[in-house]
Amino acid sequence: MSGPSSLRTPLARVRNLGSSHSGTQDFWRQRLTAVAMALLIVPVVVIVLMLLGRNQAGAAQILGQLPIAIILLLFILASAWHMKIGMQIVIEDYVHSEKMKLALVMANNFFCIAVALASIYAILKLSSGV
Amino acid sequence: MTTRIERPLSPHLQTYRVTLTMALSIIHRATGIALYFGTLLLAWWLIAAASGPTAYAHVQAFTSSLIGKLILFGYTWALLHHLVSGIRYFFWDLGYGFKANEREALTWGALIAGIALTVLVWIIAYAIGAGR
């Protein structure tokens, strides 16, 4: 594509959204989710402290309350997204074998989505009281 | 297929003299990776709370053990350090704090604030835990 026969200059390939076609989207989302978590950290720590030393019935009763469930859902979404981007940057920095890189980036996506969905499912289950 | 171009690579870690900002940059990554796998604990805890008393008792047995407490203490520090260290990056993203003394101050600030906040949270945790 960009071999010796190409008439396109390197500049043409990196214009607009660049060679990855997504521009600075990951950079922006990394900051967006970071600000979200910085705002949510105080309520999240308070929620964890509220649960200390309580048994399952007490913990479930607190976790099922609407404002608490929403705060935790927002925090889980932001952290899953943030850690997906962060781990991908680490993989891209240190893994130089192309196939291994693809496999790890895929595994990273699977891990983040699975952890997020499992946590979200648990909170929704607690909220619906079943 | 085109042949791969051999581009120059940046010098690696051992080439550089260790500086505070460099060490904290590495710690930022390391705490990020630790938190990544730490979310498994968070998910386990939430699923256990949603599952029932037996599952939740397993989590509590772990969190009240010595090794469990050490991991949780490390988790707390990793989280709070990554947070304050991350706030440092916002200063730099916005174009502030690039002078030598400013970046040193920001970095020391993050290191100290991360430890102080962790100790504070655990003091509150023990104060509450003792009351229940």
Describe this structure in words.
The complex is a heterodimer of chains A (130) and B (132). Chain A has 130 residues and is mainly α. Chain A has a single domain (18-128), classed as 3 helical TM bundles of succinate and fumarate reductases (Up-down Bundle), CATH 1.20.1300.10. In chain A, 77% of the residues lie in helices and 0% in strands. Chain A has five helices and no strands. The radius of gyration of chain B is 20 Å and the shape is extended. Chain B has 132 residues and is mostly helical. Chain B has four helices and no strands. Helix content of chain B is 78%, strand content 0%. Chain B has a single domain (20-130), classed as Up-down Bundle (3 helical TM bundles of succinate and fumarate reductases).
Nearest-angstrom radius of gyration of chain A?
A: 21 Å
CATH topology of chain A: 3 helical TM bundles of succinate and fumarate reductases
CATH homologous superfamily assignment of chain A: Fumarate reductase/succinate dehydrogenase, transmembrane subunit
Most residues in contact, chain pair and counts: A-B, 37 and 32 residues
How much strand content do the residues of chain B show? under 5%
> pLDDT under 50 segments of chain A (min length 5)?
none
How helical, in percent, are the residues of chain A?
Answer: over 70%
Order of helix and strand elements from N to C terminus of chain B? HHHH
CATH architecture of chain A: Up-down Bundle
CATH topology descriptor of chain B: 3 helical TM bundles of succinate and fumarate reductases
Give the SSE order of chain A as H and E letters. HHHHH
Give a concise summary:
Chain A has 130 residues and is an all-alpha fold. Chain A has helices spanning 10-14, 25-51, 56-63, 66-94, 98-128.
Which key features would you list for this structure?
heterodimer; A: 130 residues; mainly alpha; 3 helical TM bundles of succinate and fumarate reductases; 0% strand; B: 132 residues; 4 helices; 78% helix; extended
